[in-house]
Here is the input.
Amino acid sequence: MNLLSKIRSACGMRGREESLRTGIVTSLAFILSMALPLSGQATSVEKLTEAYRLEKEGRPAAAITELQTLLDSKALDAAGTAKAWDILGLAFQDQGNFSASRRAYEQSIQAYETLPDKSIDYAMTLDDFGELYVSTRQFDLAIRMMEKALHLYEAANYHSGAARASGDLAGVYLSQKKIHDGRKNLERALREERLANDFDDDDRAAIASLQGWLAQCDGDLWAAVSRYQQSLDLLRKYHGEEHVSTGWGYMLLGDVRAETGDLAKSLSEMNTGLAILKRALSAQDPRYLSAEIAYSRVLDQSGSRSEAALIKANAERQLKAFYNIQCVGCTISAKAFQ
Here is the structure.
C-alpha cells in the first residue's frame, strides 16, 4: 500500500489518474451553447470545446494557449468565462504548475459565486480544485471541497457528478489508509454510477481502478489485478496507447502484480508505463518522477539494487525540488466553503 498511496497522493490520480473527470466534450458544448450570447456564439463555443478536448487528450500546453486567447478576447459571458477558468486550472495542474492552477480555479469559483443557477458547473470546479489539493497533499482541504461538490450534485439530483465526487473522495481516503471511509464512498460511487446516464469509459476505468485499490487494501491481490487490468483495458480503448492515463494504468497494474510475486511481468508492465509517461511528460514532471520511484521499488525487489537506488535517489531529489517551489500552503477563497 505504501507505494500505491505515494503514487496517488503525489499525483492526484484523476481518471482521471487521473480522474473521474467532469463531463464530456459534447455535453460541454451543449452547456455553453445555452449560456453564451448568440453573437459570436458558435466561434466561442467551438474554441472552448476544442480547449477542453485538448486538455482531456493530454495536451495541456495547447489547451492553455487556446484558453488564454479566449479569455483575453472577453468573448464569453460569465458562465463561459467560469468554465474556461476551470479548464485552465485543469491544464495548469496537468503541467505541474500548481500555483497557476490554484489561481485559475479561484477565478472560476469567484465567477460561479455570481451564478446560482450553475450549481453543477460550480460543483465540477470544486471537485477539480479538490484534486489539486490532493496533488499537494492537503487532504483536509481536498475533502472539504469534494464534500461540498457532492452536496451540490445531490441537491441538483445529478447522479454522474455524485458518482465522480464520491469516487474522488474514496481515493483521498484510501490514500490516507482510511479504508472504512474509502469503502463507503466507493460504494456510494457505484450506486450513483448505476443511475448515471453520461458515464464514459474514462469514468468506468477510474471506478475499476478504485475497486482494484480497495481490493489491494483488503489483501485480495488477484481481485486487484483483475480490476486494474479492467481499468487499463478501458483506458487503452478510450485514450489509446500514448496517453498519460494509459501509462498510469500500466504502472498501477505492475505495482499490484509485484505483490503477487510475478516480478518479471510486473517490470514489463511498469517499463511499458514508464515509456509512455516519458513520451507524454517531461522528465521533471512529478507524475513521471513518482512513476520512477514506484518502478525503483520493484526493481529493488528483483535484485537490481544499485540501479534501483540510483533511480530512486535522483527521482526523489527532483520531486523534492519540485514541491519546494510549488505553492502548497496557499489559502483559497473562504467563500468556497460557504
